[in-house]
């Protein structure tokens, strides 16, 4: 809502600098987008009179104009506007003037002829395209004939007015009008308002029925009034009206349309004007649209109506979408002579639905949705009718045609001083609060019990409950004046839940291991959402996605990480180690809402360590990532972790992927991404893992209990076993552990060899077995006996050869 | 020359020899040569026979003094030579200390996560619980329980990704508050919570808009909670995140679930309120929204609005991070360029 302080001064005397006023509004009522004055930055732009206009000798579209600018001699100015003509008052940018966009105008020559300045269009002096009257849109502007030659143009065009652009929140629709804003400022500054009202009309109230007979269902239009103005001449509005409109951001059209817009801005009351001659019959009906009905609206769109749309219909069918947009068939135009004017209150939720469905959000529909001042529906109609008659040299036909008219009263809300102070944390006195209510134009009485009984006038329809009153007191009293304290209630413990601390610990562990946290998008493509999945799930899709890249909620984290890595490698960052902790969304058929499961995933590519002056580079590989996963699970207290050769992951390298289990629960997987998938993402070899953190949270955990450290020495035995390629390390380690005596405390693989010194198809695995007794020093004989017994079994079990 | 003079002469020569020796190995040779059984001192003392008996103790004592002196001189010289030897050895071991150290490979928490952690720490310390909730929500919790019935004009303020008519990507983390309020047993004490998490809006991504971002919403419900308590809490928050000197100010605003509703500005931490590009010359930066919980919200959650009341606030860690670290494009947070992510490694 663009508010001109000059217009405001019709209603309230403030004499406050516009910036200061804006600041006050912002601190007390609603946000201010900007404060502007159109003349700012412009200079030497004056009224000129085109005494003579002749063709430029060297051009067929330029004209030489002799322009009187109040100096001794007229200036010769070259003008290319198609509508340039002699005998008009025009906007002249003198030599060395400054027009919009900080452009300087200089004396110069154009095709051999001198041009001493420029004749300007409204756009050239800073008007937005959307507010320039259509007839001047393609050319220069003509000022009123009585404009004084040589004077600055700014006052004629309202360009010296300060305009405060309010960003009105949905709850303060009362400020979507000049009068509403004036009420608010009167409260803020404790001033008196002088609102003007239309003159009382002496008329025969029955005359109007000769023209129209409206009827309405009260649930669709609680008030529906019409007036008729006859013998009207349609023409441009006077300058003062055009100025008010364009300073409010509305394009002037003609005296009929402009008056309806003017009243909309002034009262916040949307009006609609019909051309009486185009209405079929006298009966005007406010009703719901019938199945199959259509309406061509003012924007020349044919709209299929639904049976929830409120329409205004004449005897031939719908002529307007109520409160939203009029129909083309009955629109007022240059030849209109009899105007039927509508002023009403329509059901807000129906208007909202209609506006949404037809994507027709207008100044009118916005106000009906948020509410309007029900006390001035008739007054706004009368004011509009009188102004149309005045500006169009017509006559208001006697009487308002009334279809419905609701009784509008003040609303009473009760609240105690204690409640106000309890909620705000203040110690306001009865007088202070009473004064605030009074300034707001509320009528207050205090009951014997000390309750305020507050009468809320209809122009503050947003106020209906005690909390509303508390807000009014708080903002007028001033938020700066509230004390700052902390809640004093019963003490409560603040701590993470077990689940929350596991999620956070998991993140820290991966960071310590060298992975950086990524946060990717939860919405992705249909294809990526379903990659790398750990369980079967239906996909969950948006009903109306914004783009094909974000249609489906993810069912894995890895695909997001691969996108991230691709983004990095595309920018020549080739060594990337990222992890993400977040949710995936699994949905079972028949359920609408998916299950949200906390996952943890990592992805690495390139080098883990670069070549340095002291050491060789370390490329990322399976075992590096496995080590990280092992460290993570161990640190989270997960017992008996097993890595099993996995083949079921379509997107993974079939020979380099392991499923991860603990206590027979599937926790996730790790491995190398399938080269085909890498190609799709434009990646080099990439290693990934994904874990179900919820499973990990639910698993029983190792209890940290102290075990005494043995004081007796360890004895070790090393052995290298030559086995078939297919034999897995885990099987050997498990076997040695199972078959050894109680003194074996550790089996550690320390070398793997394949190559020249071993038979083809074989590999050598070297282990260090560690023996220790808690209570005594072990003898070599005991260890050797146990070691050899086990090795014999290993040889036969794995067809192994001890090297 | 009498014995004493000979001893004095001997001492002088021996001390000169000790001072001049520069090889550790020779120190022992000198010691044997001077003080050994065949050494000159022993030799001199052999001549004691010719000394009158009454002078013998004096000469003997002097001879011992010379011996002690030479022993000390030898020890001192040895120590000195050892120091020199060590110094020479260490000098040879000199390295270029300007060569780079062995890099410690660690990752970093995401900057948004860091901001959230900072907020969590503050509120845990003030006795708040941290509550998580679903990212895919029911319209009922996301809007209706927040006093935003269907067809409410304020629904236009948030463009929503719907999955079905009733199911949507949550647009705020306040549905977590609605769910928690419904369950909370007030006989066990007040409800004090924050709910951090991801939220989604049907927005086109650009420098200042992202269809996915984060929120931390806070809620306190008790018997005597005031707007002054809200102001004090937010002041503490602003000072924790943006610095001790920060002031806040409240401006009227509108959120359907609070009344009164306020926008909260913090005094500009770049210019200390003098006016700069960050604060658009106003000295203040809008950082969050807040208010006193609307009685309808309490009633819908089954809480007696005549007895209980409270405050709520909501802030965007993305915006906080942008302000605090001067990030000018919100998309940076979700592209995960490691050169971006690894900049925020300072701890403490
Ligand atoms: Zn600043």
TrEMBL record, chain A:
PANTHER family: PHENYLALANINE--TRNA LIGASE BETA SUBUNIT (PTHR10947:SF0), PHENYLALANYL-TRNA SYNTHETASE BETA CHAIN AND LEUCINE-RICH REPEAT-CONTAINING PROTEIN 47 (PTHR10947)
InterPro entries (alphabetical): aa-tRNA-synth_II/BPL/LPL, B3/B4_tRNA-bd, DNA-bd_dom_put_sf, Fdx_antiC-bd, Fdx_antiC-bd_sf, NA-bd_OB-fold, Phe-tRNA-ligase_IIc_bsu, Phe-tRNA-ligase_IIc_bsu_bact
Designated name of the protein: Phenylalanine--tRNA ligase beta subunit
Alphabetical keyword list: Aminoacyl-tRNA synthetase, ATP-binding, Cytoplasm, Ligase, Magnesium, Metal-binding, Nucleotide-binding, Protein biosynthesis, RNA-binding, tRNA-binding
Any one GO cellular component localisation term in the record: phenylalanine-tRNA ligase complex
Ranges for domain B5: 408-484
Cofactor binding annotation: Binds 2 magnesium ions per tetramer.
Domain FDX-ACB: residue ranges: 710-803
Subunit structure: Tetramer of two alpha and two beta subunits.
Reaction(s) the record says it catalyses: tRNA(Phe) + L-phenylalanine + ATP = L-phenylalanyl-tRNA(Phe) + AMP + diphosphate + H(+)
GO BP, sorted A to Z: phenylalanyl-tRNA aminoacylation
PROSITE patterns per UniProt: B5, FDX_ACB, TRBD
Pfam families: B3_4, B5, FDX-ACB, tRNA_bind, tRNA_synthFbeta
Amino acids binding Mg(2+): 462, 468, 471-472
Protein family membership: Belongs to the phenylalanyl-tRNA synthetase beta subunit family. Type 1 subfamily.
Keyword RNA-binding tagged: yes
From TrEMBL, chain B:
CDD domains: PheRS_alpha_core
HAMAP family: Phe_tRNA_synth_alpha1 (MF_00281)
Coiled coil: none
E.C. code: 6.1.1.20
Record's keyword annotation contains ATP-binding: yes
GO CC field: cytoplasm
GO molecular function, one term: phenylalanine-tRNA ligase activity
Gene Ontology BP annotations: phenylalanyl-tRNA aminoacylation
Primary enzyme class: ligase
The reaction(s) this protein catalyses: tRNA(Phe) + L-phenylalanine + ATP = L-phenylalanyl-tRNA(Phe) + AMP + diphosphate + H(+)
Subunit and interaction comment: Tetramer of two alpha and two beta subunits.
Protein's recorded name: Phenylalanine--tRNA ligase alpha subunit
Residue stretches spanning the membrane: none
Cofactor binding remark: Binds 2 magnesium ions per tetramer.
Biological source species: Liquorilactobacillus satsumensis DSM 16230 = JCM 12392
């Amino acid at each position: 809502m663009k508010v001109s302080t000059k217009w405001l001064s019709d209603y309230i005397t403030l004499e406050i600098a516009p910036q200061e006023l804006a600041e006050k509004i912002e601190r007390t009522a609603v946000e201010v987008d900007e404060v502007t004055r159109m003349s700012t930055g412009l200079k030497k732009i004056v009224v000129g009179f085109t005494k003579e206009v002749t063709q430029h000798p060297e051009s067929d579209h330029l004209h030489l104009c002799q322009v009187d600018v109040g100096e001794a001699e007229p200036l010769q100015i070259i003008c290319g506007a198609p509508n340039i003509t002699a005998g008009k008052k025009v906007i002249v940018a003198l030599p060395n003037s400054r027009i919009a966009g900080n452009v300087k105008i200089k004396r110069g020559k154009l095709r051999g002829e001198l041009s001493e300045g420029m004749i300007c269009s409204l756009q050239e002096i800073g008007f937005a395209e959307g507010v320039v009257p259509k007839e001047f849109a393609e050319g220069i502007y003509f000022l009123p004939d009585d404009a004084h030659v040589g004077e600055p143009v700014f006052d004629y065009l309202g360009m010296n007015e300060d305009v405060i652009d309010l960003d009105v929140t949905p709850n303060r629709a009362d400020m979507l009008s000049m009068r509403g804003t004036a009420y608010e400022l009167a409260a803020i500054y404790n001033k008196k308002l002088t609102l003007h009202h239309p003159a009382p009309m002496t008329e025969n109230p029955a005359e109007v029925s000769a023209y129209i007979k409206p009827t309405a269902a009260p649930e669709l239009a609680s008030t529906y009034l019409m007036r008729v103005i006859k013998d009207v001449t349609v023409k441009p509005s006077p300058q003062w009206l055009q100025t008010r409109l364009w300073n409010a951001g509305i394009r002037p059209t003609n005296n009929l349309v402009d008056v309806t817009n003017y009243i909309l801005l002034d009262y916040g009351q949307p009006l609609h004007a019909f051309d009486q001659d185009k209405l079929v019959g006298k009966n005007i009906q406010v009703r719901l649209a019938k199945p199959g009905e259509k309406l061509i609206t003012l924007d020349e769109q044919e709209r299929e109506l639904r049976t929830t749309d409120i329409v205004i219909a004449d005897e031939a069918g719908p002529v307007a979408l109520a409160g939203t947009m009029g129909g083309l068939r009955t629109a007022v135009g240059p030849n209109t002579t009899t105007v039927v004017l509508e002023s009403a209150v329509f059901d807000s939720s129906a208007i909202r639905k209609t506006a949404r469905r037809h994507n027709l959000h207008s100044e009118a529909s916005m106000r009906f949705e948020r509410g309007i001042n029900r006390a001035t529906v008739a007054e706004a109609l009368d004011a509009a009718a009188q102004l149309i008659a005045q500006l169009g040299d017509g006559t208001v036909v006697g009487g308002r045609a009334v279809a419905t008219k609701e009784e509008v009263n003040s609303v009473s809300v009760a609240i105690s001083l204690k409640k106000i102070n309890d909620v705000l944390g203040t110690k306001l006195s009865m007088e202070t609060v009473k004064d605030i209510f009074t300034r707001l134009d509320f009528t207050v009485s205090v009951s014997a019990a000390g309750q305020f009984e507050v009468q809320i006038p209809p122009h503050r329809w947003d106020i209906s409950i005690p909390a509303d009153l508390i807000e009014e007191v708080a903002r007028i009293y001033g938020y700066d004046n509230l004390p700052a304290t902390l809640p004093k209630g019963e003490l409560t413990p603040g701590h993470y839940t077990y689940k929350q601390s596991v999620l956070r610990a998991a993140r820290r562990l991966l960071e310590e291991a060298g992975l950086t946290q990524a946060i990717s998008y939860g919405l992705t493509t249909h294809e990526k959402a379903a990659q790398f999945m750990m369980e079967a799930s239906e996909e969950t899709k948006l009903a109306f996605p914004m783009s094909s890249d974000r249609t489906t909620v993810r069912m894995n984290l890895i695909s997001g990480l691969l996108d991230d890595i691709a983004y990095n490698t595309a920018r020549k960052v080739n060594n990337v180690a990222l992890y993400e902790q977040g949710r995936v969304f699994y949905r079972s058929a028949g359920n609408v809402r998916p299950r949200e499961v906390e996952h943890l995933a990592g992805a690495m590519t390139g080098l883990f360590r670069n070549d340095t002056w002291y050491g060789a580079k370390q490329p990322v590989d399976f075992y590096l990532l496995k080590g990280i996963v092992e460290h993570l699970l161990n640190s989270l207290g997960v017992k008996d972790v097993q890595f099993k050769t996995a083949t079921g992951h379509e997107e993974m390298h079939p020979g380099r992927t392991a499923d991860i289990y603990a206590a027979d629960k599937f926790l996730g997987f790790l491995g190398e991404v399938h080269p085909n998938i890498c190609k799709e993402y434009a990646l080099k070899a990439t290693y990934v893992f994904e874990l179900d953190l919820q499973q990990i949270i639910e698993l029983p955990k190792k209890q940290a209990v102290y075990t005494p450290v043995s004081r007796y020495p360890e004895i070790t035995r090393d052995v290298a076993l030559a086995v078939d390629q297919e034999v897995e390390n885990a099987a050997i380690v498990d076997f040695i552990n199972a078959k050894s005596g109680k003194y074996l405390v550790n089996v550690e693989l320390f070398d793997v060899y394949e190559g020249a010194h071993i038979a083809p198809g074989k590999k050598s695995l070297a282990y260090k077995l560690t023996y220790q007794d808690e209570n005594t020093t072990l003898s070599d004989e005991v260890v050797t006996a146990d070691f050899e017994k086990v090795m014999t079994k290993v040889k036969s079990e794995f067809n192994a050869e001890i090297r | 020359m009498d014995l004493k003079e000979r001893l004095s002469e001997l001492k002088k020569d021996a001390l000169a020899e000790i001072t001049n020796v520069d090889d550790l190995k020779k120190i022992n040779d000198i010691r044997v040569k001077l003080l050994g059984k065949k050494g000159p001192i022993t030799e001199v003392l052999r001549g004691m026979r010719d000394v009158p008996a009454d002078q013998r103790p004096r000469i003997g004592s002097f001879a011992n003094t010379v011996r002690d002196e030479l022993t000390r001189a030898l020890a001192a010289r040895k120590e000195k030579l050892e120091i020199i030897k060590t110094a020479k050895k260490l000098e040879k071991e000199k390295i270029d200390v300007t060569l780079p150290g062995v890099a410690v490979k660690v990752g970093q928490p995401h900057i948004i996560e860091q901001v959230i952690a900072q907020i969590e720490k503050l509120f845990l310390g003030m006795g708040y619980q941290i509550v998580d909730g679903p990212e895919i929500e029911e319209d009922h919790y996301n809007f209706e329980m927040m006093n935003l019935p269907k067809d409410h004009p304020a629904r236009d303020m948030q463009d929503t990704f719907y999955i079905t008519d009733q199911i949507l990507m949550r647009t705020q983390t306040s549905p977590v508050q609605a769910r928690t309020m419904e369950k909370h047993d007030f006989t066990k004490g007040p409800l004090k919570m924050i709910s951090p998490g991801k939220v989604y809006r049907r927005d086109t991504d650009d420098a200042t808009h992202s269809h996915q971002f984060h929120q931390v919403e806070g809620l306190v419900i008790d018997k005597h909670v005031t707007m002054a308590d809200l102001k004090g809490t937010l002041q503490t928050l602003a000072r924790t995140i943006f610095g001790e000197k920060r002031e806040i100010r409240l401006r009227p605003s509108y959120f359907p679930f609070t009344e009164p509703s306020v926008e909260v500005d913090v005094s500009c931490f770049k210019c200390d309120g003098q006016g700069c590009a960050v604060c658009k010359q106003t000295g203040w930066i809008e950082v969050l929204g807040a208010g006193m919980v609307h009685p309808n919200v309490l009633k819908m959650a089954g809480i007696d609005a005549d007895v209980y009341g409270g405050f709520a606030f909501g802030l965007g860690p993305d915006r906080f991070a942008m302000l605090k670290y001067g990030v000018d494009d919100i998309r940076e947070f979700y592209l995960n360029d490691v050169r971006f992510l690894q900049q925020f490694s300072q701890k403490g």
